[in-house]
């Protein structure tokens, strides 16, 4: 039974995660699964013979294996060497695998008022999130150490790019591309698929994805589900080429003395961002969607409309710490919310008031 609700909807225990809505695949759909960036990657290809799709799947698995190695923030590689040289304050030739991400991150950090800030790698490490096997229960960092790191104000604007050379004016800058690397990698993967003549596909990295083309004669349908994995909150259908990314406080974290500390650090305070449970963003490219989801999570219920406008993001769904949904009119127009019985919830258009 359909019911009408205002655009601010209180929810219990909601954390959003984008996923493919469970439905019968079209004939000729190919699936390939592998691990990269510490998460499960799913490649879905439609309308291509199995031998070509299989070859494309292997090629992308190789691509992501390389990307995982070169952008890793705490194992020896191009990024850790870059961080060492940035800390020395001298000009050096940037690794070709790192330079494009630095340039893109500088632009997106500026647009987000530095709420997306890959330069805070030292803070991320201090909180223990630069680990392949984070501890589920441990004390938070010492408050004075956090204060000291925040006072150093590392930002992407501290890095100067001169052709292919880099230099940092702030030795506290340490790059961690955890909030953009997955999205940028997906963009490169989609570009590779298109080079191989594949125009209908999804690259899904643990629920964050970019979809191109169609699934046979219908659009790709993307579902939003609860953090507990039970049921579907809603769904949307992609049009042409779109990326859907979510940042949530349930993704990574630890508990100490009854308090949960998640991995999305507010660069202004040095602590996990407060006031938000999750943010889902739809954008054209995956790198922007990835960075924007983090920036809007940090911005919180009061500031996210301003930051979304600065970043050119028109489709946003934010769930605040009280379980209330906030969304842009553009997202409201296309997101199909489902009630407990699986029926559509119709949102009254006149009640939407955010940009």
Topology, element by element:
Elements: E1 3-5, E2 17-20, E3 30-36, E4 39-45, H1 50-70, H2 78-88, E5 92-93, H3 99-111, H4 121-126, H5 143-151, E6 159-162, E7 165-168, H6 181-195, E8 201-205, E9 208-212, E10 221-225, E11 232-237, E12 241-248, E13 253-256, E14 259-262, E15 276-283, H7 286-310, E16 315-320, E17 325-327, H8 329-334, E18 336-338, E19 344-347
Parallel strand pairs: 1-19
Antiparallel strand pairs: 2-10, 3-4, 4-8, 5-7, 6-7, 8-9, 9-12, 10-11, 11-18, 12-15, 13-14, 15-16, 16-17, 18-19
CATH fold topology of the domain at 78-168: T-fold
Uncertain runs: 1-25, 348-355
- Tell me the name of the CATH class of the domain at 78-168: Mainly Alpha
Shape: globular
Beta strands, count = 19
Q: Give me the secondary-structure category.
A: alpha+beta
| Radius of gyration based on Cα positions | 20 Å
Counting DSSP H or I runs of 4 or more residues, the number of helices is 8
What's the overall average pLDDT, rounded? 87
- Largest sheet entry: 8 strands, antiparallel
Strand content: 25-35%
Q: What are the secondary-structure elements, in order, as H or E?
A: EEEEHHEHHHEEHEEEEEEEEHEEHEE
